[in-house]
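User: I'm curious what two different proteins look like when written out as structure tokens. Can you demonstrate?

Assistant: Sure. I'll show them one after the other, since each token string lines up with its own sequence. Here's the first protein:
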Amino acid sequence: MAFKNSELNTSGDYLKKGSFVLIISVILGFVADYGFNLTLSQSLTSHEYGDYKVAYAFATISSVLILLGGDRVAPRLLSTGLANKDNTDVWEFLRFYLIIALSLSSLVIITTYILSVLHIGSTDLQEHHPLVLISFAIPLIAFGALLSRILQSAKHLALANLPWRIMLPVLKISLIILFIFLLNTIALWQVILTGVLSVIIVISFQWYKIRQLNLIELKRSPHFINSAQTLQLSIPMMLAMLVTMAVNQIDLFMLELFAKEHEVGHFAAATTTAHIIPIAQVTIVGLFLPLISPAIKQGYQSAKSLFWQGQKVIMISTSLIAITLLVAGEKLLSLFGPDYSQAIQTLWLLICGYLIWSFAAFSSTWLQYDDKGFWVVIVGIVTLILDGSLNFALIPLYGIKGAAMATTISLSLAALCICLFRYKHSKEN
């Protein structure tokens, strides 16, 4: 059964408006984030810049972990109600996942602090990454992710995406420049402090807009959330997202162990440059998220139509971006500094790996929304193990190129498996 005419028109209008937001979010967001990273590379040594990227990766992965998939499952739980102007369940959803996030983030902060006191590994504040300080940003990032998903579920894509894609890096750049103007220099802990302050500003803005748009009512709706059933939906989504992020970030952690210190900064510059491909992919998938569950409920033809619509947009967009990066990559790397051009081959490999995975990303999300998230998690875990093993073997031999090879091989095999699972599942239906 296909969408009704009114639903088609509504979805069509939403996608047209969303496409405009998508273009702004991807292009201006990349410029803003790149500007922030360039500011850091000019303010810190390549060693310090690499340390910051590792600390940031730790905070990002931890913020996904402590939510247990609350941000991922939000459109599935909230889209229908918000589309009908019913906000009675939003506070219950937010409250449920906030309690979980605050509890688990407390454990992360305490554990990180204990490790730092014991001077274990890179959590030693006196010698290496200030992970204890950045760990306090973890619950804030998680809270911001929930607010963004509420706005996304209500189809306010600009308010969901632009504050984090554009406002956040612009705020961080402004605060870093202010620190340098006042102090003539900036330390790594001060960079992290500017990030925390910027996150607080963005969260405050989004909360204000949610209240202004009447998307939440601070009243309990205890029957909306069945804890066990809700977590059964969200945890597989969290695991799939976490594994994908871990595959993208494990290279940095393993380079810390096996490569020279300055190479971590060079690899970080390459991943920052290539990262516009995953940004575009995630943004496009986010555009379609509120439409997936209704399409699946409408039947095979509606689901098939929406799937191929999203798949086409992703493939065309990421391919054009990849071609642009291949042409302009060396120039973009040189903006970080003359020695960063050494990472050009690493950049080329990462572009290929991210592009191939982007072709399978919508299939991965679709399987999760169609109650086949278990297979996505299995593929992700195998991919993570493979990536770690390849990093262990290739980094000592090839340095940052070895890390990029590991990522490209792992993501390519993961993309193949996901597409095969998606094809098999569609045939069964």
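Here's a second, unrelated protein for contrast:
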Amino acid sequence: MAVWSIVEFAQLGEDFMLAAEHYHPAKLRTLSRLASLSGRTVGELFEEVQDTVRPGTVEGPARLYDLTDALGSLLRPGTDITEADFLSNRKRVQTGDIIVSRLRSYLKEIVVVPALPHVLLVSPEFIVLRLRPESGLTSGAWLLPYLLSEPVQTILQWSQTGSAHPRFNSDTLLAIRIPEAIIQLADNLSESVEAAHQTVASSNVLYNEAEVLLLHELGLDRLQLPTTKTYTASFVEVMAAERMDAEFYQPKYQRTLAALRKTGLTVGMVARPVRSKFRPKPGGFFQYIEIGGVVEGGRLEPELVPMDEAPSRAQTVLEAGDVVTSSVRPLRRLTGFVSQAQAGAIGTSGFIALRPTATTPEVLTVYLRLPLICEILDLYTTASMYPTISESDVLAFPFPRLSEGAQQDISALVQKGLAARQEAMQLLAAAQRRVEEFIDNV
């Protein structure tokens, strides 16, 4: 259905914006509604921070957070980087900052930076907001549910420019009006956000316990791994492996593989590949899981996609309990399992999809996410720009023989961790609903 707006020349502003979508009726109604309420703008309470960090200027350990690390409104683990990895300008942030991706507003990549023990660097695509000392408020965390609310998202949606990479600018964000009724709720809303962060921390602890337990069962926590930088491999070994890359023969990896192979089991003996092909039907929607939808703790975050817009990459029909692992760059630990609520979801062709037959989804997920295991899997990749591991290599990879009790304990820890994270998401959703209700009622 066609929509239109009639605007005066004076409404075009200093930038003389002529893009029709900027004057969408929904945006104009929202701006008029907020303008009628007493309050202050985002820019009056928060300053935009431009602490640009250049390569060669960071000392000590640092962690990089990209746009996808802000999906789901709770900051994901990010990536530890060294000086050698630091190749382009980043922004430095600190605890309590609100970071907002200006790219593709519908993804809602907005988070509050929690307290973390390292230098925090983020993509330059983030707008960094920091509470002004003169605001009289003790925390800026309350801004998160406000920015996630329907009125603000409507403004941002119709303020983007560009087609391939639609962005809004920081001036648009800073000019958004915050009703005084919401500011009065600041302390209460901040408590909800901080409670969500604490719950996430508990979730991470539970998952880490599952990893520690699995490492202990594998004996990898007691395995003495050599750190020598020089080593040799025999011609027989090279011919058997059919490869000559030096990294593959590092002693710590070969010793780990030797220990794992003692069980005689492989991934293919405890799980089978999923072959169900997706055939889109006219009308309706489906849950689509891309590689970016694999998040911490083995959790998957599907997006709802119209059947008529199904990408060619959407190929595999998944059932509850299926495990998916990225075939590209195994080092990124992108493995997760399908929950009951996600049964019938469609996985991207970039996944190797496995259906556990003699282990639990949680155990297989934790195993394929272990950092040392991911390092070894990464050795099996081919190509340079998009290093990819084959399904056959994953199926032939050794798998541990675990007692039923150990598997149950690991599975229970993972499930408790996922439940805690779900509770955190519910806390944020409740805070967002409260914001929207107050806006509707004032």
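A detail about the second structure: The first strand starts at residue 39 and ends at 41.
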